């Protein structure tokens, strides 16, 4: 992800070696606890340090030969190591957000990417997002009820909400509650039938509040579906001029529009819905991380989270292709998003990896909540963000904004379960898989590896344990059989990941063609040999 580069504000020099705190390590510690991770590395801290300290940790990524850490007091630098060929990664400590707020513009500017900072309390708990909760309505179903919601989206309203936020001048988190109060006012005005409760969520270490709009579910109120966007903004050179139109007023405006649409149609849902506008994303995902920590520690069941962050730009102008981010997201939710896009939107999508950056969806994924993130073109996203030029005058991809708005509403309709579709789904449910063949041969090797033999027109094979309640959706994260070889008229798929197989488990194997259409499926029940 590339951020604007009008002026390099830090000289590139060799960084001398410095002492680190041995309690923190980017390597595995036998007596340590994992407190941060991404796809490439992990940060551990000793148990003794966990007992003695109460502090904030910021993990930052930056060019290997920059002198960025010269701006950090040496006693605050806990650990550092090579991240990849060009970047290093470091962990620094602080008692509040002042240090990382002063560093954030330089990190964004030097790194040439976004989402290079994550800030969190030392005592937070990480959880692997392995368990999946089935949607109320399988994403394989195409229902009439959601269509009226899609037709009710008014993009002119979305653009008006963006301008309201841009006209604040800046929404950097140190500017107080003005931005959050503005978002709350927009949500309140859209809440025409008072279906949602709208509340500020206060954070201890920033004066900026997050804002949460909540619609309580009817039959599954204890289970919550979250859709989020961040309300703050940043300018790498001058935080008093940070319009943040695409990043991320465009996402917050979609949240407001969803409130408007749901109220205008007087919709209700089986599960509780929360639309969350996060504070302080640009200084390390603080707002979303604070909320996620609170919810998980209090036992609140968030069963899925979608992030909306940047929706209005395309490198080649109008292009409705949604980039489904693979980094820190659920394979099962990505598959559901593909089904929704194909079934309802007749739209294009692509899969892509964030090489170093991230957004608020990682806050939920890190706490064990399956996450989804649909984004602009990752190879060519908005080059004007984090500058005074991130205004609506740079918008050139209204089609994408509309597609992401529709995908977010469809995600709510299926995963939260719009009640207006319950009868229709009940009649369609039994036939969801009738068109899929079952020409899949399965073999288990060494009791822990699974291989699948299919026809050669199959391009992808995935498998998961089946949810007992629905018998149509996964109860654990989908697994990919990533390797294959052809043997005559058959294609053999296999994986290198050992599976936790046990008698009595029910598994479903899914086989897709190159266009992601479901060709074959097979259900199996494991038994003792």
From TrEMBL:
GO molecular function: carboxypeptidase activity; metal ion binding; metallodipeptidase activity
InterPro entries: CPQ, Peptidase_M28
GO CC annotation terms, alphabetical: extracellular region; lysosome
Keyword Endoplasmic reticulum: yes
Gene3D superfamilies: Zn peptidases
Subcellular location(s) of the protein: Endoplasmic reticulum; Golgi apparatus; Lysosome; Secreted
One Pfam family per UniProt: Peptidase_M28
Keyword annotations: Carboxypeptidase, Endoplasmic reticulum, Glycoprotein, Golgi apparatus, Hydrolase, Lysosome, Metal-binding, Metalloprotease, Protease, Secreted, Signal, Zinc, Zymogen
Example GO BP: proteolysis
Peptidase M28 domain segment(s): 211-400
Subunit structure: Homodimer. The monomeric form is inactive while the homodimer is active.
Protein's recorded name: Carboxypeptidase Q
């Amino acid at each position: 992800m590339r951020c604007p580069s009008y002026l390099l504000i830090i000289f590139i020099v060799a960084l001398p070696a410095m002492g680190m705190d041995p309690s923190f390590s980017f390597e595995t510690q036998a007596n340590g606890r994992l407190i941060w991770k991404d796809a490439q590395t992990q940060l551990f801290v000793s148990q003794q340090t966990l007992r003695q300290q109460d502090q904030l940790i910021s993990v930052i990524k930056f060019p290997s030969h920059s002198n960025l850490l010269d701006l950090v007091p040496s006693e605050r630098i806990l650990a550092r190591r090579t991240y990849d060929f060009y970047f290093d990664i470091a962990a620094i400590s602080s008692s509040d957000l002042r240090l990382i707020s002063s560093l954030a513009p330089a990190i964004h500017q030097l790194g040439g990417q976004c989402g290079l900072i994550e800030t969190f309390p030392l005592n937070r708990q990480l959880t692997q997002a392995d368990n999946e909760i089935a949607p109320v309505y399988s994403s394989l179903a195409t229902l009439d009820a959601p269509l009226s919601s899609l037709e009710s989206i008014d993009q002119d309203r979305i653009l008006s909400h963006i301008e309201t936020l841009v006209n604040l001048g800046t929404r950097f988190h140190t500017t107080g509650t003005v931005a959050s109060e503005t978002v709350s006012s927009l949500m309140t005005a859209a809440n025409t039938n008072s279906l949602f409760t709208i509340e500020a969520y206060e954070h201890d270490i920033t004066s900026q509040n997050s804002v949460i709009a909540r619609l309580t579910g009817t039959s599954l109120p204890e289970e919550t579906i979250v859709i989020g966007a961040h309300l703050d903004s940043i300018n790498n050179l001058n935080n008093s001029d940070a319009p943040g139109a695409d990043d991320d007023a465009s996402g917050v405006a979609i949240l407001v529009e969803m409130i408007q649409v749901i109220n205008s149609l007087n919709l209700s849902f089986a599960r509780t819905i929360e639309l969350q506008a996060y504070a302080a994303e640009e200084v390390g995902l603080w707002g979303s991380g604070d909320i996620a920590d609170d919810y998980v520690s209090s036992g609140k069941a968030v069963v899925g989270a979608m992030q909306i962050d940047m929706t209005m730009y395309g490198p080649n102008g109008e292009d409705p292709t949604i980039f489904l981010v693979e980094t820190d997201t659920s394979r099962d939710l990505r598959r559901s998003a593909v089904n929704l896009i194909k079934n309802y939107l007749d739209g294009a999508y692509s899969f892509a990896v964030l090489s170093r950056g991230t957004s608020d969806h990682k806050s939920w994924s890190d706490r064990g909540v399956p996450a989804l993130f649909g984004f602009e073109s990752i190879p060519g996203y908005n080059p004007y963000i984090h500058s005074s030029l991130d205004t609506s005058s740079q918008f050139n991809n209204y089609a994408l904004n509309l597609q992401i708005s529709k995908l977010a509403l469809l995600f709510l309709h299926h995963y939260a379960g719009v009640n207006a579709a319950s009868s229709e789904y009940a009649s369609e449910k039994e036939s969801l898989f009738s068109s899929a063949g079952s020409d899949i041969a399965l073999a288990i090797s060494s009791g822990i590896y699974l291989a699948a033999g299919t026809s050669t027109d199959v391009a992808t094979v995935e498998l998961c344990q089946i949810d007992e309640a629905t018998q149509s959706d996964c109860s654990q994260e989908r697994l990919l059989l990533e390797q294959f070889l052809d043997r005559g008229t058959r294609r053999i798929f296999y994986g290198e990941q050992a599976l936790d197989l046990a008698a009595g488990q029910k598994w479903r194997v899914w086989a897709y063609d190159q266009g992601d259409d479901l060709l074959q499926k097979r259900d199996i029940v494991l038994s003792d040999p």
